[in-house]
Amino acid sequence: MARRTLAWRQHARRWLGRLLLGAGVLIAGGIGYAYYVQISRVLDLHGQQTALQADLSTLRRQNEVLRQRLSLQDDPDYLEYMVRKLLGQIKPGQTKYILPPDAP
Hints:
By secondary structure, this protein is mainly α. It is built from 2 helices and no strands. Helix content is about 80%, strand content about 0%. The longest helix is centred in the middle third of the chain and has 71 residues.
């Protein structure tokens, strides 16, 4: 009977060792997967940050151009230029020539 108990204990220890090894592998795999997911997310966010910085740079340039155009709104020479260009106005004493569109 002592032999059976000893054999059973050895058998139980083997299974316990295998169970602990399997649990360790599963835990390590879970940690590795979680690490992989986080690294993927960080890389994704880095790509988004780069794209947003490029967009910000473009918007800052556009903003500067618009600020310059806005500052020209008070310039009498610019206003005269735009009235002549958009509305076709001329100064008194000037002659306006209207040419027909180019024929194909």
